[in-house]
Amino acid sequence: xxxxxxxxxxxxxxxxxxxxxxxxxxxxxxxxxxxxxxxxxxxxxxxxxxxxxxxxxxxxxxxxxxxxxxxxxxxxxxxxxxxxxxxxxxxxxxxxxxxxxxxxxxxxxxxxxxxxxxxxxxxxxxxxxxxxxxxxxxxxxxxxxxxxxxxxxxxxxxxxxxxxxxxxxxxxxxxxxxxxxxxxxxxxxxxxxxxxxxxxxxxxxxxxxxxxxxxxxxxxxxxxxxxxxxxxxxxxxxxxxxxxxxxxxxxxxxxxxxxxxxxxxx
Length: 266
Fold this sequence. Notes:
The chain has 266 residues and is an alpha+beta fold. The protein folds into two domains: 6-54, no CATH class; 70-246, Up-down Bundle (Fumarate Reductase Cytochrome B subunit), CATH 1.20.950. The protein has five helices and four strands. It has helices at 48-54, 70-95, 104-137, 149-180, 214-246, and strands at 6-11, 14-19, 26-30, 36-39. A hairpin with a 2-residue loop joins β1 and β2 (14-19). The longest helix has 34 residues, at 104-137.
């Protein structure tokens, strides 16, 4: 009967039994071992158990006290890959700008790089915003209790700067193109989303020599890039220092396949 009858599925030495439609978890038993644990039900939406199944059984979506959850890991590495794409594409876009007025081939290359750079930047802005909201609802794992107080302070400050710059960079680029607008001097300004010029400006067009015109936001964009390179470099060096010098699993708990236990900050 629904809600009372167990169902059993056998598979090469494994047997899974759970109550259909009920609240009793099924039991997973691996033959020849003492491993016996509740198998979470995927029938209860909005629970950690349903997230387990949603992520293919590879780990919980939520963070734990000692490790990042599956969703945080996916967001971390996806954003990291997109940054690796964004920076060189941006340099190529800038380098081909002048030549694009004289050469059709360069114009095609410049437009392609602009499409990739602007689209990728908007997607980074959306993903970072989502990651911040997810982190607010799922607090980060604690830092190792053996770290000195100043080391914990530096780690949190570095993360704060990284999140800030990941918001400032796409917003300042968006603002710079918005205030530049279309002009006889610089031609049309496209705000691409993939192959379509459909992204609306976030600020009105302003004269080029305006105090808060294109140059103002372009400089913010440029200096945020330089600062971001320094902070990102420190972040990577710190992760490697934790892994190779301290051997405290800080890197492994964010690694895609990592599901490790580390010291808890108490």
